[in-house]
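Recap from last week: sequence in, structure out.
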Amino acid sequence: MPGRTGRGVGDEPGQGAGGTNLGGRGAGATPAGRRPVAAGQAACLPSFTRLPYSAADFDCVERKAGDIMSVWARGAGAVAVAAALVLGAGPGAAVAADPVRSPYGASTGVGVHNAYEKAKYRYFADALDSGAAMLELDVWTNAFGRSWRVSHGNPLGNDNNCENAAHAGELRTRPRNQDLGGCLADIRAWHDAHPGHRPVLLKIEMKDGFQARHGRGPADLDALLTARLGDALFRPADLAGAHPDLDTAVRADGWPTRDRLAGKFVVELIPGTVEEGNPADSLWTDREYAAHLRGLAAAGRLREAGAFPAVHRAQGGDPRLRYADAGLRPWFVVFDGDASVYAGGSVDTSWYARHDYLLVMTDAHSVAPAIDGTHPTEAQARDRLALLAGRHASVVSADWYPLPSVLSTVVPRAGG
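Predicted structure tokens:
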């Protein structure tokens, strides 16, 4: 139904305080597919000190968190008691017991690839309701079409589940196939109805890059994001604070805690497949937007920026060294690439965790042994999430839209 309300600041969809699964279950409910602990059953003890994490570890912490939900509500002293039940499992267990208060960079969530597709969600509001940590949009900017188009394979028009809702009451009532502004309008309408929602990473693939000559450049995107999302954006300036660039800021202070990011959207930009395959395009989205950030910062106008550029595609070492202009490198603190490469052993993924960088791992289902990209069992999806959290992912993405109980789960990210 449109316009659902009733969450407080710091609450995430369906979350009982302290649960690891952030969608759909009330306090004390048994997780779907899990048996309740029988009377007299031996207490479990998760082990977040070994890698990779197992699904059994998270089952255990989830069970403990469910046991303490009713205690949690009684105040800060009770919170400390509740946390003590899992602290013996190691530092990461505290994240599982209290995902809302964990640092954003210390947790791992699940994202949906191309969440704008109507075959996945009838409306984009449904994608927002899924509890997913990341939702992806594909955007076209070429001069052969109007505005910022959102579609997968049509570079000239819109083919998506966005409605351009003016307010929450219009969600799920209007014609779909709107442009990026329409998708952002839906996001704002949903946000207004759920002001304390989980932090959501909005990943935008710029399919054919920016087109500044046609009014679709970095500054134009900033203006659109600001006009549509406004104070719901977590901006580069919010992360940078008094530091000179994003890298210095995140190394010094890390990312805010999830409760401080409640009600916020973090926008990630990656170069698109068409852009990367175009031999005539020598200025890809990542470099162009990083240069834009640098210029804004130099002019004292970083507050105008609305997005974070990502280094695209997995690579060993510091992948920012690919940028010949060393001055661009400090503006990248988000990295995005194929999960199979990151998990294959050729990349030291602990480097990302040590520096508090966000690491988005795509095609999570393809990591050996491969599982179904859309319809794995819940146990398979949770095992894959556990594996990649142990490989230091911040977000793992696939097409697991039929599994909202998995999409809304937040687990500890392995430390560096």
